Amino acid sequence: MRNAVVLTKLLFLLLGIGRIQAMAATLYVAIQGSDSNPGSSVQPLRTVTRAYNLAKPGDTILVKPGVYTDYSRGWGLHLGKSGSASSPIVLRAQPRGGAVLDGRNAADRNVGIYIDGNYNVVDGFEIRNGTKAGITIWGNGNQILHCNIHHNGNPASTSTEGKDGIYSNEGTSGNVYIANRIYHNGRPGSNLDHGLYLCGQYELVLNNVLVANSACGLQIAGYSTVSNLKVYNNVMAFNGTDGIILWQSLNGIEIRNNIFYKNGHYAIGSYDAHGTGIIVDRNLSFGNGYRDFNFTDGGSDYSHYLGSTIPLDPRFVNAAATGFDPHLATGSPAIKAALNLASIFTTDKAGTARPLSGAWDLGVYVY
Question: Long-range CB contacts (< 8 A, 24+ apart) of 130-134?
């Protein structure tokens, strides 16, 4: 009898493991595929849309090299499903940078990717020519990783609606943006269009390069209070106005270990910004059109802590706007000048390990 009980328990355990394994699948997408295929590696699907419609929490969609233009009219590539914190839905370019999501500036397309689901991961894509923006996020716990997001929101218009590389709505929480290159987004000359336009809570911005966006590299927009936003080890260069602008209601914003280089106005500007707990520390600011920081414009009166700032040329490998390369050259004052944040993250933009102890390098790359 005891053996029968043990065997019964073992059977239930094995069945349970089988169900767990069955829950997580990998779907493949390729230019030469067909949406009537099952989505296996040898019989891939043709569109990202079809793969996403089939995906369940915990599944991974691997997208092979090529240019993909599928979208839902009035949306873009619509990610409306939800995974969970432990089982997100993952869309991954294979290899990184090989798959291009091209909006072609289609008149009936809203943005490149429209996310109103929770716990989706977008990893390694080139995202370009979204009519109104690259990515807009209306859900929670989503991750944008290792993407090149460029030339979105470029078509001329008189709309006062911003056209950004990435936008997060004020009702969102827990979205993260890591190791992306975000550049040339927005209408030429517009002061409304930014690389990142973030309005949510508990967001994380680290190891990103934000270059030559029409207005700011990052706008922090507190329609409802932006709280607990961390901005670490980014490079913001050649943006039309500020590297970062702080606006409206803010609480608990940390801006550390960043490099601000030759932005049109300030490294960090403010307008009508109010709140508490703003920390600006261990940053390098050089060559910005106005001065380094402005904490008072437009009636701004938030309490803040300003720590150390390096006012020296960071000495990038290529400091020109064309071909900009933010790797640090020999003798850069950014080397070993940053706070160690190993309790939060441990690698640079390329995945190179940052030291677990001792000073870090400023910006996105380990020297």
Answer: 130/76, 130/103, 130/105, 131/103, 131/105, 131/106, 131/107, 131/155, 132/161, 132/163, 133/162, 133/163, 133/164, 133/165, 133/166, 133/167, 133/185, 134/164, 134/165, 134/166, 134/182, 134/185
Residue 138: closest CA among 108, 111, 118: 118
What's 98's domain CATH number?
2.160.20.10
Asked if residue 199 belongs to a domain, the reply is yes
Average pLDDT estimate for 265-280: 98
Q: Omega before 95 cis (within 30°)? A: yes
Taking only the tens place, the pLDDT of each residue in 204-252 is 999 999 999 999 999 999 999 999 999 999 999 999 999 999 999 999 9
- The model's pLDDT over 324-341, given as tens digits with 9 standing for 90+, comes to 999 999 999 999 999 999
pLDDT at 15 over 90: no
Is residue 365 in a domain? no
Query: How far apart are alpha carbons 333 and 310 in whole angstroms?
Result: 8
